[in-house]
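Reviewers of the previous submission asked for a worked example of the structure-prediction workflow described in the proposal, so we include one complete record here. The input consisted solely of the amino acid sequence. No template or homolog information was supplied to the procedure at any stage.
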Amino acid sequence: MEIRRATFKEVQKIRKHALSVLKESTMDRVRPSIEKARHMTSASLDGSSYYLVYVEESEIKGWAAIGATFDFYTDKMVGIITELYVFPEERRKGIAKKLCRQSCNHLQNKGFQKVQLNVFAGNDAIKLYEKLGFYEVSRLLEKKLHD
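From that input alone, the workflow returned the following structure tokens.
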């Protein structure tokens, strides 16, 4: 088992799963499209962001996309985990926890003092993130204005 920065070839494999990751991570609240999926993964290819992969026996079991973002509330740059995904058949084995911890380590080594992530309400991953020390900072509410 190893966690390391993804190679170009591995990033291409990850991108092939972008539609299903988008659908699952947004709890079916976003209609997946190639354009949205490309936008989602393009940030991880811009040079300042990158993927970490969890590899076992030469196979990717999961990944995390990490980078930086500007926090308008504190006027500071913070680390961000923009994507954390483990294949369904590999879940409940501690892979997400290891990826999240390693992501935080990478970001801390880059000098960030905070790490943020966004997770949709109802996503079971919230429990994991809270166990790892993440806490709710804000809550986005919405109301539909049509029938």
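The chain has a mean pLDDT of 91. We consider this example representative of the routine output the project will generate in years two and three.
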